[in-house]
Amino acid sequence: MRRTAAICVILAVSSVQAAGVPRNSWNKIRYRGGTVAAKVDSWDWNTTLTVKPDEIVVVFAPRTTVRIKPSQVDSISYGQEAHKRVEDIVALSVVLGPFALFGLLHHSQDHLVGIVYHTDDGKRGAILLETPSYWGILQVLKAVTGKPVDITP
Predict the structure, then answer these.
(1) Which residues pair with 75 in a beta bridge?
(2) Which of 98, 128, 134, 141 is in Cβ range 3.0-4.6 Å of 32 for a Cys bridge?
(3) Strands 112-118, 149-151: parallel, antiparallel or unpaired by DSSP?
(4) Which residues contact 70 (CB under 8 A, 6 or more apart)?
(5) Percent helix, strand and coil across the chain, each to the nearest 5
(6) pLDDT digit of tens for each residue in the chain (153 aa)?
């Protein structure tokens, strides 16, 4: 009986500690569109987002990786606001590359996270991600970048 109680206490303490550790990497994400010319399947949920204090890394495919410094992020948005903002950036950059239109024609009620940023050379970029872990991602991005999350009511 004592052994069972001790095991229960150890498991309870370890699960509480694990729950208190903030998560900074997610891999069940779908790239829905943006200015990144990544060739991914529309049903591919293998995009990975890693948020560190000094950089945000998005891996679309084994060969396509985008690294963004938190100071380069212009805005973070959720839902239809994210769709609208990324669509605006893509519309401005469509002259530069037709791949930017990928995925933006489909309009839905999914959990979308939008990141609008600027590169070192001054160009604007945007990434639209769909994920069931949107709340945790938004909170970590908000903490790292210092930007508020824009949500359309």
Answers:
(1) 116
(2) 128
(3) unpaired
(4) 53, 54, 55, 56, 144, 145, 146
(5) 35, 30, 35
(6) 666 655 555 655 555 444 444 679 999 899 988 998 888 887 888 899 999 999 999 998 778 999 999 999 999 999 888 878 787 787 766 544 544 444 444 444 578 999 999 999 989 999 999 999 899 999 999 999 999 999 865
